[in-house]
Design goal:
The complex is a heterodimer of chains A (518) and B (485).
Chain A lengths: L10 H4 L3 H10 L8 H10 L3 H9 L4 E2 L6 H9 L5 E6 L2 H15 L6 E2 L4 H6 L2 H15 L3 E6 L1 H6 L3 H10 L21 H17 L17 E4 L6 H15 L3 E3 L24 H8 L3 E4 L6 H9 L3 E4 L6 H15 L5 H21 L3 E5 L2 H13 L3 E7 L4 H12 L8 E4 L3 H10 L4 E4 L3 H8 L3 E3 L17 H22 L16
Parallel strand pairs in A: 2-3, 2-4, 5-6, 5-7, 7-8, 9-10, 9-12, 10-11, 12-13
Helix pairs in contact in A: 4-19, 5-11, 8-10, 11-13, 11-14, 16-21, 17-18, 19-20
Chain B lengths: L4 H16 L4 H8 L2 E3 L26 H10 L6 E5 L3 H5 L22 E2 L4 H6 L2 H14 L6 E5 L1 H6 L3 H11 L5 E4 L9 H15 L18 E7 L5 H11 L3 E7 L4 H6 L5 E4 L2 H15 L3 E3 L5 H12 L4 H29 L3 E4 L5 H4 L1 H6 L3 E5 L6 H7 L8 E3 L4 H11 L3 E4 L1 H9 L4 E3 L11 H17 L13
Parallel strand pairs in B: 2-3, 2-4, 4-5, 6-7, 6-8, 8-9, 10-11, 10-13, 11-12, 13-14
Antiparallel strand pairs in B: 1-12
The chains are: A alpha/beta (518), B alpha/beta (485).
């Protein structure tokens, strides 16, 4: 018996005890597994060029993809508006998944309701579910706005969400004038970033274009304010703080359209706040009149950007810039649009970032990285790596397409460190596994799921992509702005130093390099 | 807990009336049937269950896919489980349930991987059967050591009229009888995860038992002491800390359903002498089937906390001869000092502390004994997807006037906890942070909050440690700023 009350051991150590090891060894008798040498030979085969060729030839099966489905992005968007309840029309299990997924990443509650459609709704449509669902949600959770999106079930049966909302209002579920923006977010088109785009456009369209033909469209009266749209971002709690600080330093009035950083960052002080922060309706309306909109993640906001431009605003699209050059461009765009100079404070921070990079660049120079994640974020991180003299050797985006690949290639061509780097649109983490064996790299940048690749290929993982379940509180710190780049730099360096220390620890063998000064 | 039973019942009644006021009238009537106080002596808990959730109320429930892929099939380690449909379902359930296993992932085991057909619009319009056919070929090429493939249907499959059964039969034939199992667990079926468990059980019956050559594992030699563990998903290693006790009492565990389980173990289960069933809710169907078809008796057991473990070990042993009965007593005696030490250490800190639970499967009743072993009192409990037979079984565990809430909504749960003010809430990830914000200690009771195992004697020590650390953490003394008091 290994367990004791004095020193309780859990799963980490308990099953290493001899009685469990014997038990697990004996269990094999009943498993009828393949012979050990057979297993070993397949392990080795999966590391080969031959396996890679076969792996890259598959066109139907996805294995460990790095993308989620549209409604996840829609729930993210709903969470970014003040006192807004996210309402997903369709099967209820989906909503349980979105809520869990976000809560595991942010370590925060995520409120969202479903219209709980079942077999009868599959046959007759989900109108009754919408009518009752809106009434219940309105009565229980007292939102100022309900943002509706759809699961694939509702989309396949073709529910007319606009008509359903109108009927619900006629039936008295919610007041006639109550705001219910909506978006169709079929899971079988695009990914969570497409859902972000559709849902965000749904909110803007609702307020700007006459609330689904129930009021007159608003008339734009241009002013000097600037809109900012961040896109789907796992670091939103840290980043939104940084973005607001930057605009404050400029002295520019900014309308942040969709800011979930309040909902995903509430205090533990004895009170649960179901609604906290977020873009108000007034801000959404004011945003129509803004001089211009800065869209921080192009591929997250393709339709929204077009929609805003059609309303007469200049739209500046960026690709989640990270680092010096990217942040320079972002700030210069704010300056150009507003006519205001770059604040001295930010210029100082720029210098501090360059200073830190100069101090540390030797450690990252020439290091090869594999990255995967959302398309804009990949452009941002790859840009920063190139600035450091590191090589973004494999850049993979399951939800990136042809246009993204072209942009990546242009980025690679812009730096000598981009030579030999390659973008992989529409590929998944099982493809990346092959690449990490056939063309190894020094480090990987990804999300929590990357730990399986780290285990298999021993490539150290830097967690800088949503979702991050197995490390806490990264989302509280920015990755954007000069300050955010500083944080990213430290993350890259920490992993580098950890790896180097780990590789030079063997006593009387490698520990001559176990330096105390690095 | 100083109030009398009658006072507590009156308080519960008032509390229920209060939360129902928030609903539209028609809906309040429907919800009223799911909320109540347990009346001692009654055969069930006095609430309706296994009924459709109200739309728009923030039910905590999931779907049939979650019940099949997430619970029953997903842990079978040497098979590839395809999340068939759009990408999301498989993504959100990817490796999230902590079904521990031993194996080389991606080579001979596949539990913590996400295989999906990643449906696109064209698959919805033209159907996905051809793609599924191709996917099976790709799996065979890239994962040649897989022992079988299951097809876990997501919502669109049943809506677009795909014939996954035909594809499965065709491919199985092409692949010389390779196990291929279609499961019709589309998320819109049924009212919760529960139907998914049932459909998954039926799929094992129809596509594994009925299609497997009884001589497939001809080298398997039966013994009189062969048992199968049914309904343990090895969360944090639960099935292992259970298996060890069964083996110590002289039984031979020939199969684990389905945590750390293999298809061979499933196939050989009809050779068991007794099926021991932990999660009744998710696997009673197949246990009943094996009883009817193969004459294998089954017995429910509870491995949470020494009182219930002791009772269960004796109950299981009663199905065997004197040797086993004697050995069961030896096992009980062997762990007594450990259990006493654990209780001695933690009970003084936890005595009288109140707990509210809201979980799935078996835990809303099964863990009560473990809390009571530590001197704690469960004052409220409820099931996400329980049926009436679960609520009947619950009566053996709970005390008079326990607050009962079936398919609780976010609104109700928050209000109940706010008013009852328990010392601990045990529920899931969606609830965790709500209650912690309120300053209430919390443990996730699905995933063991990334700890575990909690089953068995070794698990109870961990359970006790975890409950103590949740309640005794100094953090809870810091939630109010001193200048605010």
């Amino acid at each position: 018996m290994s367990q004791s009350a004095d020193k309780v051991i859990d799963h980490e150590m308990l099953f290493r005890e001899p009685e469990y090891q014997t038990m697990l060894a004996n269990k094999k008798e009943f498993e009828f597994n393949h012979a050990d040498d057979k297993i070993k030979s397949i392990v080795e085969w999966t590391k080969t060029e031959d396996y890679k060729q076969k792996n890259f030839a598959r066109d139907s099966l996805a294995v460990n993809p790095a993308k989620a489905c549209q409604p996840l992005g829609a729930v993210y968007v709903a969470n970014g508006f003040a006192k807004t309840l996210s309402f997903v029309h369709g099967s209820q299990g989906c909503v349980a998944y979105y809520r869990s997924h976000f809560s595991r990443h942010f370590k925060e509650p995520t409120s969202c309701v479903s219209s709980s459609m079942t077999e009868d709704a599959a046959v007759f449509g989900g109108l009754n579910n919408m009518v009752d669902g809106l009434a219940n949600a309105y009565s229980l959770y007292k939102p100022d706005m309900i943002a509706v999106s759809t699961t694939c079930m509702a989309e396949v049966i073709g529910d007319d969400v606009d008509a359903f909302i109108k009927t619900s209002k006629q039936k008295g579920s919610i007041p006639e004038e109550f705001d219910v923006p909506f978006a169709h977010t079929p899971a079988f088109v695009g990914s969570h970033i497409t859902g972000y785009d559709n849902a965000l456009m749904g909110v803007l369209r609702h307020f700007w274009d006459g609330k689904a033909k129930t009021t007159e469209p608003l008339v734009r009266v241009p002013d000097e304010s600037i809109n900012f749209i961040g896109g789907f971002d796992g670091f939103v709690v840290g980043n939104m703080k940084e973005i607001r600080r930057i605009f404050d330093l400029f002295g520019v009035k900014v309308n942040i359209i969709c800011d979930p950083s309040g909902n995903w960052n509430t205090p533990t002080d004895g009170e649960f706040r179901m609604y906290a922060g977020g873009t108000t309706k007034e801000e959404v309306i004011a945003a129509l009149h803004a001089k211009a909109t800065i869209v921080f993640q192009e591929f997250c906001c393709e339709k929204t950007s077009k929609f805003i431009a059609e309303h007469g605003q200049e739209v500046v699209v960026l690709n989640a810039p990270v680092g010096v050059t990217g942040t320079d461009k972002f700030l210069m765009e704010i300056s150009r649009l507003t006519g205001k100079p770059i604040p001295a404070q930010l210029e100082k921070e720029r210098g501090e970032l360059v200073d830190a990079m100069a101090d540390s660049q030797a450690h990252l120079h020439g290091k090869r990285y594999a990255l995967y994640g959302d398309p804009d974020q990949m452009l941002g991180y790859a840009g920063f790596l190139l600035e450091l003299g590191a090589e973004p050797s494999h850049v993979l985006s399951t939800n990136g397409g042809k246009e993204w690949e072209v942009k990546m290639n242009a980025l690679f061509s812009s730096s000598p460190y981009g030579a030999g780097c390659k973008a992989y649109p529409k590929r998944d983490l099982w493809h990346l596994r092959s690449l990490l064996f056939t063309e190894p790299v020094d480090f990987m940048i990804g999300n929590t799921y990357g730990k399986f690749l780290e285990r298999d290929t021993k490539t150290p993982l830097v967690r800088m992509v949503f979702p991050i379940f197995d490390r806490h509180h990264y989302h509280r710190y920015p990755t954007w702005g000069y300050d955010g780049a500083m944080r990213v730099l430290v993350m890259l360096l920490d992993e580098f130093f950890e790896a180097l220390d780990g590789n030079t620890m063997e006593i009387a063998k490698t520990d001559y390099s176990y330096d105390i000064i690095r | 807990m100083t109030a009398t039973v009658e006072e507590r019942k009156a308080t519960n009644k008032a509390l229920i009336e209060e939360v129902l006021k928030a609903y539209p009238e028609k809906m309040a009537k429907r919800r009223a049937k799911h909320l109540g106080s347990f009346e001692e002596g009654k055969p069930d808990c006095g609430v309706k269950s296994n009924i459709k959730s109200l739309p728009g109320v923030m039910t905590i429930r999931g779907c049939a896919y979650a019940g099949s892929k997430g619970v029953v099939w997903g842990p079978i380690k040497d098979m590839v489980h395809i999340s068939h449909g759009p990408v999301g379902c498989g993504q959100y359930s990817w490796a999230a349930r902590r079904n521990y296993y031993i194996g080389t992932t991606g080579i001979d085991t596949f539990v913590t991987m996400q295989f999906t057909s990643d449906f696109q619009e064209k698959d919805i319009v033209f159907g996905g059967d051809k793609k599924l056919d191709k996917i099976i070929d790709e799996i065979q090429e890239l994962f040649p050591l897989n022992k079988g493939i299951s097809i876990q249907s997501e919502c669109p499959i049943g809506l677009i009229g795909d014939d996954i059964e035909a594809v499965s039969k065709k491919k199985s034939k092409e692949l010389e009888g390779h196990t291929i199992v279609p499961v019709r667990c589309e998320g819109f079926r049924g009212v919760s995860q529960s139907l998914g468990h049932h459909l998954a059980n039926d799929a094992i019956r129809d596509w594994v038992f009925d299609r497997t050559d009884p001589n497939k594992h001809s080298e398997f030699v039966s013994t009189p002491y062969d048992v199968a563990i049914i309904g343990d998903y090895n969360i944090g290693g639960d099935a292992w800390s259970s298996r060890i006790l069964l083996e110590e009492m002289g039984l031979r565990v020939i199969s684990q359903w389905s945590g750390d389980g293999t298809i061979a173990e499933i196939e050989n289960t009809p050779k068991a002498k007794l099926n021991v069933l932990h999660c009744y809710r998710s696997m009673n169907y197949i246990s009943r089937h094996m009883e009817e078809k193969y004459g294998i008796p089954w017995v429910e057991y509870n491995f949470f906390g020494p009182t219930m473990i002791e009772k269960s070990l004796r109950e299981i042993a009663s199905h065997f001869d004197e040797t086993i009965k004697a050995k069961a007593e030896e096992v009980i005696a062997k762990y007594k000092p450990l259990m006493q030490a654990v209780v001695d250490k933690f009970k003084p800190r936890l005595e009288g502390k109140t707990v509210m639970l809201y979980i799935g499967g078996l835990r809303p009743r099964h863990v009560i004994g473990a809390y009571e072993d530590l001197g704690m009192v469960v004052v409220g409990t409820g099931y996400e997807f329980g049926h009436n037979d679960d609520y009947q079984r619950t009566t053996h565990y709970i005390k008079d006037a326990t607050l009962i809430y079936d398919d609780v909504t976010g609104y109700e749960f928050e209000h109940f906890v706010d008013k009852v003010k328990p010392d601990l809430v045990g529920s899931g990830i969606k609830e965790k942070y709500v209650f912690q914000k309120m300053g209430v200690p919390f443990r996730q009771m699905h995933s063991w909050d990334y700890s575990g195992p909690y089953h068995g004697y070794d698990g109870f020590a961990i359970f006790a440690r975890d409950m103590d650390m949740a309640i005794s953490s100094p953090i809870w003394g810091l939630t109010k700023a001193p200048w605010k008091s």
